[in-house]
Amino acid sequence: MTETGFEKVPARDRRRFPGISSRAYEHPADRSALVALRKLSGFDTVFKALSGLLPERSLRLLFLSESVRVGETQFPHLHAMLRDACYILDLEKVPQMYVQQDPNPNAMCIGLDEPIIVVTTGLVELLDEEEMRAVVGHEVGHALSGHAVYRTVLLFLTNLAMKVAWIPLGNVAIMTIVTALREWFRKSELSADRAGLLVGQDVQASMRGLMKIAGGNHLHEMNVDAFLAQAEEYESAGDLRDSVLKILNLLPRTHPFTTVRAAELKKWAESRDHQRIMDGHYPRREDDKDTSVTDSFRQSAAHYADTVRTSKDPLLKLVGDLAGGAGDLGGRLRDKFTGAGAAGGSGTGPETKGGATEQG
C-alpha cells in the first residue's frame, strides 16, 4: 500500500494486525453498545442524513482555515506517526489530521462522512515521540471503531442543550440523551487507550502520557507506580458519601479520570486478551457481520458483574454484598454512610447482623 508515492511503513519494528476488528480492543460496555447500534439497519445512515443539521462542514472549514493540516511538509513527524498507526491497525484510508493552537492538551476524532483527527499544540508540546505515538494510535482507534459519528452527535447535542436551556423540559430531554452518550463516550475512551497501546506497543509510554496529561511536563517529579497507586486509593478510599461524590464528579465529564484510565490500561496490558492479540489471535473485520448481539451483551454483563465483585469502591462492595445476601440493607447503609463500621477498632473482630463491629 502506498500513500503519496512512498511505502507506509512503521518507524521501528512493531507488530502489525492485518484485518483486525475494533472488537479486539473495545471495552465490553463500548463493544456491546456499538454492536447493537451496528445491527440496527440504517442506523449510521440516519445519523449521516443529519449532516445538514450537524456542524460537520462548519467544523471542517474551521480547522482548514484556523489550524495547520498535518502532512509531509507540516508536522511531518506527526504525519509519519499517523501513517504508522493506520498501517499497524490496517486502516485503509488515512484520516486528515490538524494541529490546533490551544495550550490545553487535548485530541479528538470527529466527523460523519469521514473522520478527522485534531490535536492541540498543548498536547504536541507536552508529550515525547513514543507518548505521542500512543495518542495518535488512540485517535486512529476511534476512527476504526466508528466512534467519530457518535462523538460528532454528542458535540452537536451538547451545544444544542446550551442553546435551548431556557425552553421548559426541552433541555431535560436533550440532556438525558447527552448523559447516556457521555457514559458511552467514557467507555469508548478506555477502548481507544487500548488501541493506542496496540499502536505504540510501549506500555510505559502510554502510562507516562496519561500521567503528563494529569500533572504536566514535570516527568522528573512524577512516578508511574505512585500515579497508579492514586487510582487504587481513589477506588477504595472513603465511604458511601465519597462513592456518590465520585459519580456526581464523573457525570458531566466526557473522559474517565486519568488515574483510572492508567490503571485500566495497565490491567488490560497484563491480561490474556492483550497477549492473544499480540500473538496474532484476534477478531477479524470480515467477521463483524456475524457478530452476535447476545454474546456481546453477555460479555458486557459478565464484565460488570466482575467489576462489582472485585471492586474496592464502598458503594460497589455494598452492592456485591447485598447481591450475595450479606447483612440487612438498613444497617449496612447506616454504617457505610456514618463510618460506624470503621470506627470499631482494628476491624478484626466479629460482626453483628447489622454489619457493625461488635465492641464487647
Please tag this protein with its features.
single chain, 360 residues, mainly alpha, four-stranded mixed sheet, two-stranded antiparallel sheet, 16 helices, 58% helix, disordered N terminus
Account of the 3D structure:
The chain has 360 residues and is mainly alpha-helical. Helices cover 58% and strands 6% of the residues. It is built from 16 helices and 6 strands. The strands form 2 sheets. A 4-stranded mixed beta sheet has the order 3-4-6-5, with helices on both faces. Helix 1 (28-39) packs antiparallel against helix 14, helix 6 (129-145) packs across helix 9 and helix 10 (224-236) crosses helix 12. The radius of gyration is 23 Å and the shape is globular. Mean pLDDT is 76; it is low at 1-10 and 342-360.
Termini separation: 76 Å
For the sheet with most strands, the description reads: 4 strands, mixed
How many β-strand runs?
Answer: 6
% residues in beta strands:
5-15%
The residue-averaged pLDDT reads: 76
How big is the Rg? 23 Å
- Give the ordered list of helices and strands: EEHHHEHEEEHHHHHHHHHHHH
Topology overview:
Blueprint: E1 2-3, E2 6-7, H1 28-39, H2 43-49, H3 56-66, E3 68-69, H4 76-88, E4 96-100, E5 107-110, E6 116-120, H5 121-126, H6 129-145, H7 147-163, H8 170-200, H9 203-215, H10 224-236, H11 240-250, H12 258-269, H13 272-278, H14 293-310, H15 314-323, H16 329-338
Parallel strand pairs: 4-6
Antiparallel strand pairs: 1-2, 3-4, 5-6
Helix pairs in contact: 1-14, 4-6, 6-8, 6-9, 7-8, 8-12, 9-12, 10-12, 14-15
